[in-house]
């Protein structure tokens, strides 16, 4: 894969797979977030389009695979169902061979290819790269090396389902400098939809001009 960083175009030696996590119950939204319409197509299609732009392959992790059959991408179920995002990352690694994995959730329509490129470039000498934003780490926007697969499986078998447990198993670094990427693009990359008002905000973004957009950081926290 080729990565464009600033004005430089460099060859990426790793084979990358995108893991899209769609295992949540959408209980706070009241309906499946992945299929809410945004700018003329379902949110999940926005996510797929962005992930295809920064990976070589894709897999979607869900415990209801028939709902996603029409999307034309591989799906897989959790080996450890209902055990959180670490179980989803494990399922992605187990079902799709790659050297590096880019992770996102199904309700993040404005993820940034540029941010993922920066994270990927930082994985060269590390096992995990986690972005931090608004005082929080965001593991569901992180990148991970293949060599963690066995460690993740061991953690799940031991009932250790937290992402922090994984950080201790590999060389983990945190990124909070997004190298001059537009502030709004960074804001929106970390925006996800948990409540109906989040969906309303997402729909309003296209309607407002860039100079008028003011992302409410409290909606992300």
TrEMBL record:
One of its GO terms (molecular function) is nucleotidyltransferase activity. It catalyses: Mo-molybdopterin + GTP + H(+) = Mo-molybdopterin guanine dinucleotide + diphosphate. GTP binds at residues 21-23, 33, 78, 107. Pfam families: NTP_transf_3 (PF12804). Residues 18-169 form the MobA-like NTP transferase domain. Keywords: Cytoplasm, GTP-binding, Magnesium, Metal-binding, Molybdenum cofactor biosynthesis, Nucleotide-binding, Nucleotidyltransferase, Transferase. The keyword Glycosyltransferase does not apply. InterPro entries: MobA-like_NTP_Trfase, Molybde_CF_guanTrfase, Nucleotide-diphossugar_trans. It comes from the Bacteria. Its main location: cytoplasm. Mg(2+) binds at residue 107. Its EC number is 2.7.7.77. It is found in: Cytoplasm. Its cofactor is Mg(2+). The keyword Manganese does not apply. It is an enzyme of class 2 (transferase). Belongs to the MobA family. The N-terminal domain determines nucleotide recognition and specific binding, while the C-terminal domain determines the specific binding to the target protein. Transfers a GMP moiety from GTP to Mo-molybdopterin (Mo-MPT) cofactor (Moco or molybdenum cofactor) to form Mo-molybdopterin guanine dinucleotide (Mo-MGD) cofactor. HAMAP family: MobA. This is Probable molybdenum cofactor guanylyltransferase. It comes from Thalassobacillus hwangdonensis. The gene is mobA.
